[in-house]
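Write out this protein's structure.
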Amino acid sequence: MTRVFCGIDWAEGHHDIALVDQDGDQLAKLRISDDYPGLCALLELLARHGDSPDSPVPVAIETPRGLLVAALRATGRKVYAINPLAAARYRDRGSVSRAKSDAADARILANILRTDIKAHRPLPADSELGQAVAVLARAHQDAIWDKGQLVNRLRSHLREYFPAALLAFHGTGKLGLDSAHARAVLTAAPTPVAAAKLTRTQLRALLNRAGRLRRSVDELVERLRELFRSEQMRQLPLVEQAMGQQTAALLQQLAAACTSGDDLATATETAFLSHPDAQIITSLPGLSVVSGARVLAEIGDDPTRFADAKAVKAYAGAAPVTRASGRSHIVVARTVKNRRLAAVGYMWAFAALRSSEPRTHYDRRRDGGERHTPALRNPFNKLLGCLYHCLQNRTLYDAEKAFPAPLALAA
């Protein structure tokens, strides 16, 4: 039976479809709308050209997400997300005129599958729960990043007219600007004039309403009063008042970001703990519930997604890249990677240093002359391999197997 390959050039309002056979001849082309009738038209076109549940037509498209991709994956067919740069390079194989059209791009995507299907991997068949964990974990990570940007904006703004607030709520060992206590005080007194007028009773009430403190409230009240009433450079009165109003607006945005981050953290933890891989993932040193959910979100729960542990390490950017040509031979850090997984991997490896085996491994790399970042990347690489092994074999982490003691050389 003649094999058929489908390419989809997607856009916001419509999608161009092209079907080619195993010889590269175009069988059909169609433009569909980005809605349910458009999906039905696509499935009907595929059915007319031999598509069936037992032998679904593979589909190539330049994005791994969206309603169209989700609907196609729900039918059980293999969907290949082709990098747009790869499609652009392939376009140059057939034409040097640099001509381009949506219909031609759809045909190019179909031909990529026809000629190089073994060089591409279909989107993983993650479970519904696994996909839900991915949505929540990524949303929580985005909320944390957004909150960090808002804190930086607020910090930069306060430096322009209210340096005492930075001394009070910024720095190591102090309450951060994103803390409920800092937001409560600055909301009540967003300008130096208003802050200097706060009494001990008012400060104590604001701090108590914001939540419990690890330190003495009276001690913090006295410290804040001293800072707020100290001499400092000032803006003009009207300018200072206007900047205080901007601070109030930034604090509202920051409060919303903090609330959404907390809500997403709770939802992420609940979904992750109900996943069958949660116990295995959190058995590894350095992985908490939240960081474990982020790892699961990026590697998925499809056991066939990665060919081996090396593929996982390359995907995470933990494995180095070798560039050899002639007499030149260099090994460099991998830059093309899943940046979300690389970000959580750095925190994972750093937190794992609290365990003796990863710490010993890290210290050995440092003693060998490596700097902190590459020395930390190596335990991340090793722990990823351990995680892949544990998930494939459905077993918990074993430190003795993961970090075996070096063999003593015979005399």
